[in-house]
# Entry
Amino acid sequence: MKRTTLILTLLFLSLLTRGDTLVQWDFNSPFDFDPATGTLTPLIGSGSAARLGTVTESFTAANGGTDPNTGDNSNWRLATFPTQGSGNKTSGVEFRLSTAGYENITMAWDQQNSATANRYWRIQYTDDGSNFVDYVVIENSLIAAWTNFSVSFAPVPAANNNSNFAVRILSEFQSTATGSGTAGYAPVNPASSYGVGGTLRLDMMTFGGSIQDTNNAQPIISAINDQTTRVNQASAAIPFTIGDAETAADLLTVEASSSNPTLVNGFSFGGSGSNRTLTLTPQLDQEGAAIITVRVTDADGKFNFTSFDLAVLPTNTPPTISSISHVTILANTSTNAAFTIGDAETVADDLSIIVASSNSRLIPVANISISPTGSVRTLTLTPVSEEAGASWITVTVSDGVFTNATSFMFKVLRSEIIALWNFNSVPPDTNVNTGTLIPAVGTGTATSAGTATNSLISNVAGNSFDPAPADNSKWRFGSFPAQGTENKTSGAEFRVSTAGYRDIAISWDHYNSATGSKYWRLQYSLDGANFVDFVVYTNPVQTTFFPTGASFAGIPGANDNPNFAVRIVSEFGNTATGAGADEYVATQAGSTYGTGGTLWLDMVTISGDSAATAPMLSILKTSSGLDVSWPATATGFLLQVTPGFSPIDWQPVTQAPVLSGDRNVVTLTNTGNNQFFRLAQ
# Structure
């Protein structure tokens, strides 16, 4: 991209020729020897100076700079700039003067900023006295030190011989000044905070130029796009064109300079006549960025220049991938999630993408598809039919050498939350080390089981997926059974009534210390007393919260049950996996299981669908096939079919129902194979 903003840090001092002084403000009041007084009347020439926007002004002692009048050295002090994030490029100063009869206009001045003042200052100019155009940016990173800046308007023909010429110096956001960073003002001192009282002091504002030679036009030079090369690799030959009305193109002189000589200081010009090339050679083993300025000069000393950004990259850079927000959907639905990828060396279509799921019972990798081309990709996420819970989805992009990854939580719930424990204080007390076992949603009880002790606290490095970070308490368990004893007895227990609900599901955020058990058995009870083993959760990594869960939709007794309960209990490695010894396995590979290893839980959610009375299906065999029907008053239902229950594969019946009397009827061909039907909402 062509660079439109040039940040100056004394870059062009060697390129500027001031010539005659047109106007100069030293801001000193004549003959009063009081630096606290001053004037906006120029010392040399004629022109006007005014403050703009919110700023206030005063005159103070300069105590430095290039003003030779040390006995009465006033400066123009500006303060009261806009509040953070407001008034971008509206406040500062303006200088008006006539450049009639002059060309190659320059401005030079002394500037001092306080630590909390803005770091970036935009130079604007106008050729009609009314409409101002952004030019270059001044960056001042020196705290309370006088710095001499200089800017050339030689590349701006409209600045020449112009009675309406004017220049502004305006406070600017970092984001618009540099193309990156915050959308606000950046302080001169990075350790400070920007403040409206931060000051800008100016002295020795001087505009110069050379007498216009109407018989000699300024040479021209084409713009050069921003460039990229690699460590220890010269750039390709960069083409540009030059020309002049009086000097033959072969006699024009071209030269280049770098704002960062330690990065690149090797320039080689090629070509001839109007068509020239520039080859850049970085310094050995150096990487970084620089502003390259190319200058063309004619036989009479008139010049012009253009600038562009050069980035010297490492031998290969990792690809990039955007973040993906956490996703929550209802069971038996699917969703899309968009993300972007990129790489400095590899086109997006050639990058490879790999996905992983921490809960394949909920959503195996086969149920995640990725759009195949472009920098903007889309994940299509389809959980297993009737399953619910949560999974940690990781998307990795690779250029064949380097990788980069992003992860997000994918949670699948039933349509209604029966009970939710976030363990945060009610009302919120903004103290993460206090909490409650009363559900945040619904009713139910939470207790410890077996030997496990419990507390409500949050002195843990990992972050759960609780959306209340200022009051994010967790439920912590310790004092688990000794090695090889009391398998599947100790952990957490939750009791809820599922009366009025069906297709019950649970999800939670899970964390273990390095010496905590790696395997955890999810159990359920239908009578409130006897617990049955269900699925195993394997914690993949220590000291990190992972979301997980499971569906009880295949357990009819879990529906509409006032005595439903679940447990999450530590389990031996061999009973959890079918191999190994009768002992607990530590979460961290290489660690030893210990009774002091901890379990932390958060965002425990039990959900289900309403168990309202479902309409009855009727199936009648006819000479033409099968008539499947249900009451016409039952609205919002979809007829589905599956060939069996191992596995269950419910698919919508494509034929639309026909109203016959008071019933919806679908006529199907009798295939002679097993078919099972249901109505689903």
